[in-house]
Amino acid sequence: MSTDRTPAWPDRTNLPIPPLLRQGRVERTVRDSDPPQWPQEVAAPAGAPNVLLVMTDDVGFGATEPFGGPIPTPTYSRLAEQGLKYNRFHTTALCSPTRAALITGRNHHVASTGIIMEFSTPFAGYHSIVSRSCGTIGEILTRNGYGTGWFGKNHNVPDWLTTPAGPFDLWPSGLGFEYFYGFLGADAHQFRPAVHEGTQPVEPYLDDEDYHLDADLADRAITWIRRQKAVNPDKPFFAYYTPGTAHVPHHAPAEWREKFRGQFDHGWDEQRRRTFERQKELGIIPEDSVLNPTPDHYRRWDDLSEDMQRVCARQMECYAAALSHADHQVGRVVDAVEQLGELENTLIIYIQGDNGSSAEDPTGHGFTSEIGVLANDVVDTEEYMIENIDEFGGMWLQNHFSHGWAHAMNSPYQWDKKIASHLGGSRTSAVVSWPARIHDTGGLRSQFTHVTDIVPTILEAAGIPMPDTIDGIEQVPLNGTSMMPFFDAPDAPESHTTQYFEVIANQGIYHEGWMANTAPKRLPWVGTGESTADPFDEYEWELYDLTTDFTQSRDVAAEHPEKLEEMRQLFLAEARANQVLPLDDRYIERLAPENRPPHNVGRTHYVYYPGVSRITEAMAPQMKNTSYRITADLTVPEGGAEGMLMCQGGWFGGNALYLLDGRPTFAYARSHYPEHKYVVRAEEPLAPGRHRLVLDFAWDGGAPGAGGTATLSVDDREIASGRIDETIPVRVSADETFDVGEDTGTPVVREYDVPFRFTGALSELVVDVLPAS
């Protein structure tokens, strides 16, 4: 009878797993000792698959061809044909929350991400600082012998922690991923993105006229996967691939935009009908499904002028081009896996949308700048949009389509992104492929599934348990359940039988086929408004039997009041258990200073040196709605100098102090509109030698966005002055940063181009924030 009490190795329930050291007899000499053995390091279980997890951005259930939509996505179609389609897959209905739930397997409030990073508040479910008790799939797989990489969008780092100075514990590398190449914020300019490799900022677009982020992400992922298999072919990889497409801006290469010219001239109302009929033909939705009517608040296609119909059709062409182009890049990654002979044993999970398509368009005719319209109250004029129709999808617009197109992309459901109470916001499509394991190719699965189910599915596929502890920290139980039982059994019973939904107080609860939910009080494109004291009781509640009403179209609350109350109480119980409370229907209002962490509070003096760049707005000098002074201590060499001294933001909003042809210049952009561009410039270039260049901005005071006067002086001598009639009232940028000695991203005005590095010597740059004049 064996008396060996050595614990089984590896113990995958407690991470990290120490190497196994078998040490025999050790004497004073090598000759008298047992032959040594190398420590055995942990490896993934035998046969564990590679995993490619893909998720696009702002893509509704009815957008892509495999689910009845108008946008060709050949890679998505190919994987659907060789795998399974899921027509009842659900997200949280908003970006950061879905992404936190996806990588942790916990409900978004459990992962402290009840709202996007930028609007976090100090409550436990909303502060956006993911607890170490919610270990990520990257962390678990890395410590179980996988190679792990993250490519693309993050949006899970609190915005005040996204600076080059860190701390980096909530960046992908701090969450257990060995490699990261992508961007941290809500979106990225596809031609000039703020990209990081690991924790280092990089500018991959420099000297590349054809640069596009989606192609770059595919290149990086392919290189990384090939490197993994070249070095250690037996080690499985986990690649988390999250392009920012098709979130605003809808950027696509020109040749891809041309592919879709004229394909959406019929308009969004007709497209919604066509998609619905096609979904029935494909069997994606039941034959008795109902197409939800478009709410009265939404603009109708026939209400547009002929010129604006052309503009709005072009917007949809750009969206389709962007999504189709992104899918093509995913296809390149899949092809690379196949070329390595790894496709058979690669689990590919392709989620089409972290939420439904975005209806965050207040006018009904789309917009040309996200930050300008949604944050800074810029009003897009039809004249400007018509005149610049050929710029849509390109470098100089942050174009977004009409809320009418969003609703068409979410066919056949009600509502859109942010409206977590309704399927138009939360239900997106998904495809799973694993040739070695899934044999019902082309099959459809209709069990209720949720984004929290992805982690348990990957763990079961890999033969890895959910750990009890990571680094000694006890782990919160997973909220999701594995989808693997459905791989072989299309009629297998649901395992995820209860799921709450909540974003911005849009509330919903699914339980065993029933759905109770609130009616939205704030339209998807409304960022501010009157808040509600008690959204649970003051919002109107609806009830749906989804077992007979696939599209959530028949409110039966009046027929089943007892059931509705039972469901409401179930929601409340889930809300208490998952850190959802307190319910809060504020959105942009959460940006108020009292809701933000106390960084830079009271700080008015900032000192910088060359090479200090990519400082995000939360940590940069706050030069909005105040007076300020920028002082540059510089030296001009013989022959003159030019270049950037300081820049914050870019083309869609920002300010910059620089020398152009040696002449001191201050440029200000209230937005991308021509009338919002201001330039104050000295008449003469700076002479060689050391100088103290000062920009004084005297704000008029009053309402946010009021104007002011900019004055340039050199060595205490005024050299230029000019009016800036309007300033940025709320936010400079969602993605561009504060840079010293160079400009990253887009230029504030087009008389220079990035990086426009200063060719003289900049000793020091100081920003002093001053009271209004």
Summarize the structure.
It contains 15 helices and 29 strands. By secondary structure, the protein is an alpha+beta fold.
Largest sheet: 11 strands, mixed
The number of strands is 29
Number of domains: 3
Gap from first CA to last CA: 89 Å
Would you identify the CATH H-level superfamily of the largest domain? Alkaline Phosphatase, subunit A
Q: What's the helical proportion of residues?
A: 10-25%
Overall geometry:
globular
- Given this structure, which CATH class of the largest domain is correct? Alpha Beta
- The average pLDDT score comes to 96
Describe the structure.
The chain is α+β, with helices and mostly antiparallel strands. 20% of the residues lie in helices and 21% in strands. The strands form five sheets. Strands 2, 3, 4, 5, 6, 7, 8, 9, 10, 11 and 12 form an eleven-stranded mixed sheet that branches.
Keywords:
773 residues, alpha+beta, Arylsulfatase, C-terminal domain, Jelly Rolls, 3 domains, six-stranded antiparallel sheet, 29 strands, 20% helix, 21% strand, disordered N terminus
Describe the secondary-structure layout.
Layout: E1 14-15, E2 50-55, H1 74-82, E3 84-90, H2 95-104, H3 137-142, E4 147-153, E5 179-183, E6 195-197, E7 200-202, H4 213-231, E8 237-242, H5 254-259, H6 268-282, H7 306-339, E9 346-352, H8 370-375, H9 382-387, H10 403-409, H11 423-426, E10 427-433, E11 443-445, E12 449-450, H12 454-462, E13 469-470, E14 473-474, H13 485-488, E15 498-503, E16 506-511, E17 514-518, H14 535-538, E18 541-545, H15 561-577, E19 605-608, E20 627-636, E21 643-650, E22 653-660, E23 663-669, E24 677-681, E25 689-699, E26 708-714, E27 717-724, E28 738-740, E29 761-770
Parallel strand pairs: 1-13, 2-8, 2-9, 3-11, 3-12, 4-5, 4-8
Antiparallel strand pairs: 3-10, 5-6, 6-7, 9-10, 13-14, 15-16, 16-17, 17-18, 19-29, 20-25, 20-29, 21-22, 21-28, 22-23, 23-24, 25-26, 26-27
Helix pairs in contact: 4-7, 6-10
Family: Belongs to the sulfatase family.
Protein name: Arylsulfatase
Region (Disordered): 1-38
